[in-house]
Amino acid sequence: MTAPSPPVLPDERLAAGIARLALRHRGHFSPETIQRLVTDSYARLAEHARVRTHLVVLAEHLAAERLDALAHLEGTPRTSLPRVLFVCSHNAGRSQLAAALLAHRAGDRVAVTSAGTHPAAEVEPVVAQVLTEAGVDLADAFPKPLTDEVVQAADVVVTMGCGDACPIVPGRRYLDWPIADPEGAPIAVVRGIRDEIDAHITELLATLPST
Q1: pTM for this prediction
Q2: What is the mean pLDDT of each run of 10 residues along the chain (211 residues)?
Q3: Sheet order of strands, 83-88 included
Q4: Rounded Cα gap, residues 13 and 19, in angstroms
Q5: How far is CA 119 from the centre of its chain?
Q6: What single string gives the DSSP state of each residue in the chain?
Q7: What's the per-residue H, E or C state across 156-191?
Q8: Quick one: pLDDT at residue 162?
Q9: Residue 211: predicted pLDDT
Q10: What does the pLDDT read at residue 97?
Q11: In whole angstroms, what is the distance from residue 195 CA to residue 211 CA?
């Protein structure tokens, strides 16, 4: 049976990212598989984007994350680190705060990602501000859609206010942090949310095997 042809690229500039990812995953994923994943990532991001200027770059970043998760699931992980996924509704506030704080504090000891069940167009500016105040870089963060492979590859899934839309995968460790939504809140409140999440991060770090 002939394999289906890869989808037509919605933007020709995606070809360069596909080539980079194909080189990185040479011998494990075919260029056709990578093209399908990049195209799908682009379409998912475009669905919520207000401005499409950076979609090509973001689609490559999202596809890279999904490919690493797939490699982990298929038994050829690029890393044996514990994998932690933070999920909230929009991936613009709480889950971004948590992922950035854990990555900052754990360094290269933990593989961290975040996603939203209904991702927003951009990260809340006040969230970036309170992280900058704490010395945490959020420059490359962007709201990402929740995908099956990223959920399935996670060792720990931390849900933060996404309700019934939060994913459930048997065999994963689940934590639910009842954190207030920072959307529209004054900066003093968002600082308090940041510090509350950071306290949860301290507890989580104490339970992760590589720490």
Answers
A1: 0.88
A2: 69 93 92 95 89 86 94 73 92 95 92 92 92 87 92 92 70 88 94 97 89 44
A3: 111-116, 83-88, 156-159, 173-176
A4: 11
A5: 11
A6: -PPPPPPPPSSTTHHHHHHHHHHHTTTTS-HHHHHHHHHHHHHHHHHH-S--TTHHHHHHHHHHHHHHHHHHHTT--S--S-EEEEEESSSSSHHHHHHHHHHHHHGGGSEEEEEESS--SS--HHHHHHHHHTT---TT----B--HHHHHH-SEEEE-S-GGGS---TT-EEEE--PPP-TT--HHHHHHHHHHHHHHHHHHHTTSTT-
A7: EEEECCCHHHCCCCCCCEEEECCCCCCCCCCHHHHH
A8: 73
A9: 44
A10: 95
A11: 21
Q: Point out the residues that are catalytic.
A: 88, 94, 181
Look at the chain and count its residues: 211
Rounded Cα distance, 4 and 7, in Å? 9
Q: How far is CA 196 from the centre of its chain?
A: 21
CA–CA separation, 153 and 125 (whole Å) = 30
**Do 159 and 176 meet the contact criterion of CB atoms below 8 Å apart?**
yes
Q: What is the per-residue pLDDT for 155?
A: 92
Burial annotation 55-76 (CB, 10 A radius, 16+ → b, else e):
bbebbbbbbbbbbbbbbbeeee
- Residue 138's pLDDT is 82
Helices 125-133 and 187-205: crossing angle in degrees, nearest 10, is 60
Q: Are 91 and 114 in contact (CB under 8 A)?
A: yes
